[in-house]
Input
Amino acid sequence: MDKDRIRGSARQVKGSVKEAIGRVTGNKRTEAEGATEKAAGKVRGGVGKAKDAVRETIRTIRK
Output
């Protein structure tokens, strides 16, 4: 598993927590920051997933 997938998942969780805190406290800015961080985590996770797919394809070709 690529480091980007792990970091992306962690960032998604962090963003979800931040978004929930913003929602509970009524702080729209914190809620928006959390949503943005969660989206960035999804992107980073996708990058990691793509890297894993490329590595797997290369391993398959080399066999």
Q: What stands out?
A: The radius of gyration is 16 Å. The chain has two helices and no strands. The mean pLDDT is 94. Residues 17 and 34 are 7 Å apart (CA to CA).
